[in-house]
Specification:
This protein is α/β, with parallel strands linked by helices. It has one domain: NAD(P)-binding Rossmann-like Domain (Rossmann fold, 3-Layer(aba) Sandwich), CATH 3.40.50.720. It contains eight helices and seven strands.
Length: 251
């Protein structure tokens, strides 16, 4: 039997897809055959054009994912535009940095709400539709800080650790309903968000010395993992956190 990575006829909803990892995932899913709805605060014009260029349908949904307020509307609009949701990719996220002793409640709440609370309730809303149809794939974007504590990012570390836990919890309950839930933990990926780290000669050297592969990852590296987890090839994979990190955690 042939192993299938074909997503023809599938429909995906990807959050935070205007640039970087989210954009690469949305485009890769469309290249594999899926129609894609993208959701977020920023206008994803480049992403929408790239999806359309593959011949797949692209739907834009404007939503501020800093709270759960738009969650049901987001799912409803995705269903209206695509008629189904086979794949949900929870990529939208924020980070706030400050010393532990000075970290504010506002920064704590903002990160937890966006990166964990909204992720759970959007997954819940999409999973109701998936469970009714008896199939679906939910892919959460975790982090190296799902496994590590980091420095000056306590709320981000807490949220991403939570993403790991909720991925497993959702997988346990949704597997009998035909829905697989997994997460991807990106390593150091070359994006706009990491430009400052890459331009810092000392920090960049320290990072590269720790990565066995000896280089920064590309958004496409994460996109390849997402296509696998979205495709029939991974139908017996659920509750997993796949690190795409060039060997960082192995070191």
């Amino acid at each position: 039997m042939a192993i299938s990575f074909d997503l023809t006829g599938k429909a995906a909803l990807v959050t935070g897809a205007n640039t970087g990892i989210g954009q690469a995932i949305a485009l890769a899913l469309s290249e594999a055959g899926a129609d894609v709805a993208v959701a977020g605060r920023s206008e994803p014009s480049e992403t929408l054009a790239a999806i359309a260029a593959t011949g797949r349908k692209a739907v834009n949904i404007k939503a501020d994912l800093g709270s759960t307020e738009p969650v049901q509307r987001l799912v409803d609009e995705a269903l209206a535009g695509l008629r189904r949701i086979d794949i949900l990719v929870n990529n939208a996220g924020i980070i706030r940095r400050d010393d532990l002793l000075d970290f504010s409640e506002a920064d704590w709440d903002a990160v937890i709400d966006t990166n964990l609370k909204v992720l759970f309730f959007l997954s819940q809303a999409a999973a109701r539709h998936m469970a009714e149809r008896g199939s679906g794939k939910i892919i959460n974007i975790a982090s190296l800080l799902t496994f590590q504590g980091g420095i000056r990012v306590p709320s981000y570390a807490a949220a991403k650790s939570g993403v790991g836990g909720v991925t497993k919890a959702m997988a346990n309950e949704l597997a009998p309903k035909g829905v697989q839930v997994n997460a991807i933990a990106p390593g150091y990926i070359s994006t706009n968000n990491t430009a400052a780290l890459q331009s810092d000669e000392t920090r960049n050297r320290q990072i590269l010395e720790r990565i066995p592969s000896g280089c920064w990852g590309k958004p496409e590296d994460i996109a390849g993992a997402a296509v696998f987890l979205a495709a029939p090839a991974s139908d017996y994979v659920t509750g997993q956190i796949l690190a795409v990190d060039g060997g960082w955690l192995a070191r």
